[in-house]
Design a protein that fits this description.
By secondary structure, the protein is of the alpha+beta class. The protein is built from 19 helices and 9 strands. It has a 5-stranded mixed β-sheet with strand order 1-2-5-6-7. Strands 3-4 form a two-stranded antiparallel ribbon.
Length: 445
């Protein structure tokens, strides 16, 4: 039985009849539960229940079950600042829907209400536990990289990639995703989908996560090679775009000893990319920006034109939008959160939402590069606004986890020492690079 919420900014714990301290999981168990839930959601992302004209991803149920479990065990907290921003967003969104007219769809708005409700919660872990959590994530990402290599080996052997569409009942498959996609029209080989992922763009993005985290924190050459190779072999532009957009922030995590490795690896990677046709693929994708109806044009150019046209229209539409759920039906195009929130909810809700969203992902003490990486994948992967798995990534790497002490992360210290509980790296927020004793800091409170 969950009792009342204890007040007290910025975070408040749940209290039940029994002592929450007695019920709380150990931090090691908590990390295990979090990473186990993470990868359970990854391998089941293709499953969804068909209702209300769409497919409700099974990930949404996993999100709800995780929050309920953490609440029962007494590890969950509510961030009151997030609650206030969430209420402001939902109230403003509701008013915008009423004022936008009858075209707005109530189920779409209810979906928004549910997905972003999960953002108000967090659990507290130590810096060293978070690094351990990242190390577990890397092991899972390495398994996903192996799935990419397996897809190619089986194709070259003439067997074909494993296909979950032949196993999952048709009425439980997430639709509107291209699970099996040829490299190009009429090509013999398919883009690898990592077996469990919705489509090539999702495994491409996941390999980008692994590469960025490995480069910034662990720096194991073989692991970086595995993630980089798998990323190239997905032939997906999403992961490459994620790495490019994160590159300026990754420079803050750069170490001089990586220079010789980069000088050796870059020419080899360039030759492999050229021979495999990857450079031609990138050139072709860049040309799509001006090609009407193409993926690149629909994902970027067309959406900017839609938002521009909206703000050039009436003041009423610019302020309150056209109504939730109308963008896909009216424009018959893919959408990103930048365009969708502005078009459907208007400028006022747009500003409130992004204040809420950015506060949730940048205000929990996780490394800046992790928050930035999640922001980039959210903004530039189609449909992120209402796709549970994309929001689940953000929840599990940023918003749900609050790192105690709000450490200032950098690469100047040895992260493996941090994982062993010996040192805390200090960095991006300024000051001279130094190593601080984590245990002494925690003892000081």
């Amino acid at each position: 039985m969950i009792g009342r919420l204890q007040s007290g900014p910025p975070e408040a714990p749940f209290h039940g009849a029994a002592s929450t301290d007695a019920r709380k999981m150990s931090e090691k168990t908590l990390v295990t539960v979090l990473i186990g839930t993470f990868f359970f959601a990854v391998v089941t992302m293709k499953i969804g229940a068909h209702m209300m004209g769409t497919a409700i991803q099974f990930t949404l149920i996993i999100m709800a079950a995780l929050i309920a479990g953490l609440m029962i065990w007494g590890d969950l907290k509510i961030n009151l600042n997030r609650v206030f921003l969430y209420i402001a967003f939902i109230v403003a969104g509701g008013i915008a829907n009423i004022l936008s007219g009858p075209a707005s769809q109530l189920p779409s708005f209810l979906f928004v209400f549910v997905i972003y409700f999960f953002y108000i919660f967090n659990v507290s872990i130590s810096p060293e536990s978070y690094v351990k959590y990242l190390s577990y994530f890397q092991k899972g990402a390495l398994v996903a990289a192996f799935c990419v290599f397996l897809d190619w080996v089986l194709q070259i052997a003439g067997i074909g990639m494993p296909n979950l569409d032949h196993i999952i009942p048709e009425n439980l498959i997430m639709f509107n995703y291209v699970y099996v996609q040829p490299l190009e029209w009429g090509a013999k080989y398919m883009k690898p989908n990592g077996i469990f992922f919705l489509e090539a763009s999702y495994i491409s993005q996941f390999m980008a996560f692994g590469l960025i985290i490995e480069f910034c924190f662990f720096r194991r050459l073989l692991w970086m090679g595995a993630f980089g190779s798998a990323l190239l072999l997905t032939f997906g532009g999403t992961g490459m775009l994620c790495v490019i957009l994160c590159a300026p922030v990754m420079l803050f995590y750069f170490r001089a000893k990586l220079i010789p490795i980069i000088l050796i690896v870059t020419p080899v990677a360039a030759v492999v990319a050229l021979q495999a046709g990857l450079l031609q693929n990138i050139e072709m994708r860049s040309d799509e920006l001006n090609e009407k109806g193409s993926s690149g044009n629909m994902r970027f150019t067309q959406q900017l034109l839609v938002v521009e046209g909206m703000f050039e229209g009436t003041t009423h539409r610019a302020l309150v939008g056209y109504g939730s759920g109308v963008m896909l039906r009216q424009l018959h195009t893919m959408y990103t959160p930048v365009a969708k929130v502005a078009y459907e909810y208007g400028l006022i809700v747009y500003v409130i939402f992004y204040i809420f969203f950015i506060y949730c992902i940048f205000g929990s003490g996780v490394p800046f590069i992790i928050s930035w990486m999640m922001l980039m994948q959210y903004l530039f992967l189609n449909g992120s606004f209402l796709v549970p798995i994309n929001n689940f990534y953000i929840m599990m790497l940023c918003s749900l986890i609050s790192v105690r002490g709000r450490p200032r992360w950098t690469t100047f210290g040895n992260v493996l020492d941090l994982a062993r509980g010996r040192a805390e790296p200090v960095g991006l927020s300024g000051g001279q690079p130094a190593i601080v004793d984590v245990r002494a800091r925690l003892e000081r409170g």
